[in-house]
């Protein structure tokens, strides 16, 4: 993970905790029910996990799974979040009130802390929480564990997580309806703002040392979401990384951020921090007002979209789309 200091590292953890590649594989009966001895098999980046249908004690890492389970009415035993990047009071503004103890921290999970919750299932849809196979294996000794499903991805698509959760908890129809509802909102927004079609964007973060950490991949969760609103990742930014990893841009190369739309969040200092970067005020999106500033409490809503954060982001983005 890219880092300069502890604050930057934590910010990039939240920044990297984001979105998605198609579920590698998941099979289950069409109509699930607990207590029947049925199991669901999920293929993922570290192998395969077999989960008993409808587990009762679920420990969650990150918002993708949290929001999926809340949407389906599934109780959460414990929810591990990144301190300082999980919303006011460690609850995101778009997520409804729900059960579950919130555990705020940083870095890989403390296995003993997880074990104290006696989980039947552990899920993490963002790579920052289960960064390697060793972490996954330690957690798997406690309970069936589902990490990010595709190797090399920073996180799972919220749609795939909804599908998987629906199968595990026997709520496939409810999951499908939720997906259709949110995708309908995306289609409606795209139709409402046709001038956004084909316009370029850059999404990233400003670190305390005034470097820009930017998305460079068309498969990134944030890129996928913005593309559903008609925008496209700026080719100038896309070419910064051969591997498609999120990467740093120095303030001396602020000219690379000449996209039609800019979506950024500063780790410190608020939006005023950007004005201290030479050349920022002359960028096309800044001059035209097509710049959206997020913050540490809500940037994850775009970086790691969920069934609840997508509608929130659509509403947040509409004033910018209206100016294109």
UniProtKB/TrEMBL annotation:
Question: Coiled-coil ranges per the record?
Answer: none
The organism's superkingdom is given as Bacteria
List where in the cell it is found: Cell envelope
Show the InterPro entries listed in the entry: ABC_transptr_periplasmic_BD, Bact_iron-sidero_bind
Q: What is its main location?
A: other
Q: Where is the signal peptide, in residue numbers? A: 1-24
The UniProt transmembrane annotation reads none
Q: Name one process (GO BP) from the record.
A: iron coordination entity transport
GO CC annotation, single: outer membrane-bounded periplasmic space
Alphabetical UniProt keywords: Signal, Transport
Domain Fe/B12 periplasmic-binding residue range list: 57-324
Spell out the PANTHER family in the cross-references: FERRIC ENTEROBACTIN-BINDING PERIPLASMIC PROTEIN FEPB, IRON III DICITRATE-BINDING PERIPLASMIC PROTEIN
**What family is this protein classified in?**
Belongs to the bacterial solute-binding protein 8 family.
- This chain's protein is named Putative ABC transporter substrate-binding protein
Instruction: Provide the species name.
Output: Gordonia soli NBRC 108243
């Amino acid at each position: 993970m890219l880092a300069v200091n502890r604050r930057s590292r934590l910010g990039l953890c939240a920044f990297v905790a984001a979105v998605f590649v198609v579920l590698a594989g998941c099979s289950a009966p069409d109509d699930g029910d607990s207590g029947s001895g049925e199991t669901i098999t999920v293929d993922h980046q570290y192998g395969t996990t077999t989960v008993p249908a409808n587990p009762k004690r679920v420990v969650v890492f990150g918002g993708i799974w949290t929001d999926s389970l809340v949407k389906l009415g599934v109780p959460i035993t414990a929810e591990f979040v990144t301190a300082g990047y999980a919303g006011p009071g460690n609850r995101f503004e778009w997520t409804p009130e729900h059960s579950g103890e919130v555990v705020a921290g940083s870095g890989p999970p403390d296995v003993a802390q997880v074990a104290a919750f006696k989980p039947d299932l552990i899920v993490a849809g963002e790579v920052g929480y289960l960064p390697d196979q060793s972490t996954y294996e330690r957690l798997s000794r406690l309970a069936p564990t589902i990490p990010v499903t595709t190797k090399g991805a920073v996180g799972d698509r919220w749609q795939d997580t909804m599908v998987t959760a629906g199968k595990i908890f026997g709520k496939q129809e409810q999951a499908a309806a939720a997906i259709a509802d949110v995708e309908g909102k995306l289609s409606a927004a795209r139709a409402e703002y046709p001038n956004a079609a084909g316009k370029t964007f850059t999404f990233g973060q400003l670190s305390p040392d005034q470097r820009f950490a930017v998305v460079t991949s068309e498969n990134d969760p944030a890129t996928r979401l913005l593309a559903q609103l008609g925008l496209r990742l700026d080719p100038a930014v896309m070419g910064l990384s051969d591997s498609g990893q999120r990467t740093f841009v120095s303030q001396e190369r602020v000219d690379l951020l000449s996209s039609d739309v800019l979506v950024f969040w500063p780790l410190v200092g608020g939006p005023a921090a950007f004005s201290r970067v030479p050349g920022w005020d002359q960028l096309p999106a800044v001059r035209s007002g097509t710049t959206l500033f997020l913050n540490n409490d809500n940037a994850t809503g775009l970086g790691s979209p969920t069934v609840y954060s997508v509608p929130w982001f659509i509403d947040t983005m509409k004033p910018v789309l209206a100016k294109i």
